[in-house]
Structure formats: C-alpha cells, structure tokens
Amino acid sequence: MAARNITEQQLHELLTGHHMVLVDFWAPWCGDCRRIAGAYDDIAAEYADVLTTVKVNVDEFEGIREREEIRRIPTLRLYRDGEALGQIVEPPAWADIDAFLADFLPREAKGEQENMVEAVHDMVIIGGGPGGCTAALYAARAGLDVLLVERMSAGGQMALTQQIDNYPGFPEGIDGLTLGQQMHQQAMRFGAKTLNARVTRIDLAATPKVVGTTEGVLHARTVVLATGADPRRLGLPEEASLLGRGVAYCAACDGMFYKGQTVVVVGSGNSAAADALLLSRVARRVIVVHRRDSLRATKVYHDPLMNAPNVEFRWNSVVEEILHDDLVTGVRLRNVVTGEVADVACQGVFVSIGRQPVTALAEGQLTLQDGYIVADESTCTSVPGVFAVGDVRTKAVRQVVTAVADGAVAVHMAEEYLAGR
Q: CB–CB of 160/139 below 8 Å?
C-alpha cells in the first residue's frame, strides 16, 4: 500500500476529518526523501487500520515550508484531530519511524527478543551499501544462507549522491540511489534475504556469533561489517542546535532550501567540490572555505569550480564560529596564515570535511585504528569469521568501486573460514 500524495488544501481538509494522520513533507530532489519512500509505504500498510498516511511535496506549494515550519526534509509529522503531536526529521532507520509512532500508537513491542527458531545463518551482513550488497550477491550465488541487515534502504551514503560518474559500466553516469537499489535487487534475485532493522549489539566472540537487532536476535557463523561512515562535524558548540536552521551536511538533500541565497561550503575534497558545484546551480553565491591554499579534490572538479561565476574561495581559512539568531546569519572566519578574523554573511553552511567510520558496535571487540576497523585487502579482522568491507575498514582509497571489491573478497574469505581452511 503506497502512501498517496495530496495537496496542501487536501491536507487541511484531511486534518479536520480524521483522527490520526501521518504526513511526510518531502521533495523529489531530496536524497533522504527518496531513501525512506519504501519504508514509508511499509508504514502506511502496517498502520492502515489506525492511521491515515499521506505525503506532501513541499516544492509544489510556494511558502508551505514557512507556513508548516518545515526546517529539513523529510519531516514526518503526526496529527490527532488536526493537532500536531510530534514529528521525526530525517529518520535514519525504519525502526526509528516505528518507535516514534509507538509512542502514540501503543502496540506489542517487538524489542530484542530471541527468535522462536534458533536459525544460524552462514553469514549476516550489517549494512546495505555497495560493499554489503556485493557481499550479499556473492554469498547468495555461492549457496550460503545470507541475511543482509539494513536500517532503511539499500545504497548507504552512496544513495545520497545525485550523480556517480566513476563507477564502471555507466558511461552517462548513474544516481547513487538507483545504483544502490539495483545492487540490492541483484543480490535478492539470487536468494539473499533482507531484514530492515537497526543493529543494537553484537557479540563476535560467541559461537555462533550474535547480532542483536530491533527485530530480534540473529545468529551467524560469519559476520560482515559494512557499516560505512557518517559526515564529520566541525565540532563547534552551536553546530548541533543549528542543524536544519542553516547548518547542513548534504547538498543533494538540503541544497534547494537555499535557492537564490548565499551559502558557505567548508572543505575542499571531492565531496566538498561536488557539493559546491551542485549548490552553484541553485544558490546566488557559493563561498568555499579551506584551511589550505589549494583544492584537494581531483582535477576533474577544478575547472568547473574555478569557472563558475558565483563560486569564490576563502583560502587558508577556518570557521571559528557560526553566527546566528534563530537561523544562521553568517560565519566568522580566521585566516590561519595572517590571523585576521572576518565575518561573512550567509544563510547556509554546508559542512563537507570528510567522514568518520561507524564502528561503535565493534569497539572493544575488534582492533581499531583511528576509529577504523583494522583489516587488510583480505578484509579479515582481528576476530576469525568477521570481515570488514567498504569505508569502515583501514584502506587507502574509499570509493564505491573499492567497497564492491571488498564485498567479493569478504565472501571468498568467509567460504575459506567456513570450510575450515
């Protein structure tokens, strides 16, 4: 059952006539909106008897974001008899939406209960990015009983990338969400299974290994960690409180909110360069701030950025403070060479200074280095039968193509382990 799109007028009519209504405020250009679409339809089906579930495209109605006080999208807002009860913004996992609704629509909690049947999978893969999907594909084709655990939808961080031009086989490029969905579908075609859940704990020393999730406890002979990485923060005191009020970490997700405005992009790697180029097509002015005097991004980005008429650079500079009232009003920059401090007016700050690995589950169980799981090209970790693939492991290059290679290697090594070699 798919949630239907309605107009703003239909929304107001609906709120006066229905007891419980869940609204997804979204836009077609928003990567996170596209990622949760499948999960939102599942929610619509699961709660159909107690909840009316609809969607409103904020791009179709001028001024609706201000009228409805939508700061970031997707915003899922729950109403009872026309009154807003609460909302969840950019939910990271299906389980987060489920938990949010459970506060208002009590039902039997699934919790982390032991499975009724003590099934032991040959392999459990945690994370559905390119590395995880490839591992699922190779494992399924090898005849292994493989289960892929994914928080929301396939693709990982790749799914937020509007255009991928450096993955072989797509001469015109492909958007990350589509590529992720195709990788996932291919794995499922060969018999891999998927569980939409958040992993809450792991016990890698147990026999069999234990993976606790919001949907129950799993047991596996081998585990592949493909948990990826999250955006790195600036670490400024006001940063978290301004998220959605001028601070953002994904230009593809939030760029259109700043159409015709001035934005600052912090960073100079490939992600920052791609964000700056994307924003240059919608913002009036884009200011790139970098602590050194030249771009770190690959050469393919240099000419387009340098030739963009509305892109300018503040070299040898760092953001010392984000200026704000209720919303961001500017940044305070310090030149690391001269020490000069200057305030720059802007409405948005896009932080693109790299990513940090998602390894909290592995702490105390696997050897880590600078936060990354120590694993060489074999993908083998410090615990036999546990493998790390993609951005989460120590490696020289973190790209979609290297994550895919990791997934294939991990399955080969898992087969060796399962065979006792």
A: no
Alpha helices (H) along 231-360: 251-254, 270-280, 302-307
**Cα distance from N-terminal residue to C-terminal residue, the chain:** 48
- Asked about 346 being catalytic, the answer comes back as no
**CB-CB contact of 76 with 88 (8 Å):** yes
DSSP state of 160: G
Residue of 24, 254, 275, 391 with catalytic role: 254
- Choose the catalytic residue: 30, 33, 133, 250: 250
Tokens of 94: 């299906």
CA distance linking residue 315 with residue 331, whole number of Å: 15
- Look up tokens 């939508």; give the residue: 70
**pTM of the entire predicted model:** 0.81
Cα 376–Cα 382–Cα 383 angle in degrees, nearest 5: 125
Residue 92's φ and ψ, nearest 5 degrees, are: -75, -20
CA dihedral 141, 144, 149, 152 (to 10 degrees): 20
CA dist list (Å): 223 to 127, 133, 362: 11, 14, 12
For the question of residue 254 being annotated catalytic, the response is: yes
pLDDT means over runs of 10, the chain (421 residues): 87 86 91 84 87 93 90 92 92 85 69 56 96 97 96 82 85 90 95 93 96 94 95 90 88 86 94 93 96 89 92 96 94 96 97 91 95 96 97 91 97 96 70
362: which DSSP letter? G
Phi and psi angles of residue 272, each rounded to the nearest 5 degrees, phi first? -65, -40
- As given in the structure block, the two tokens for residue 399 are 């790209």
Contact between 204 and 383 under an 8 Å Cβ cutoff? The reply is yes
Which of the following is catalytic: 30, 33, 133, 253? 253
Look up 303 and say whether it is catalytic: no
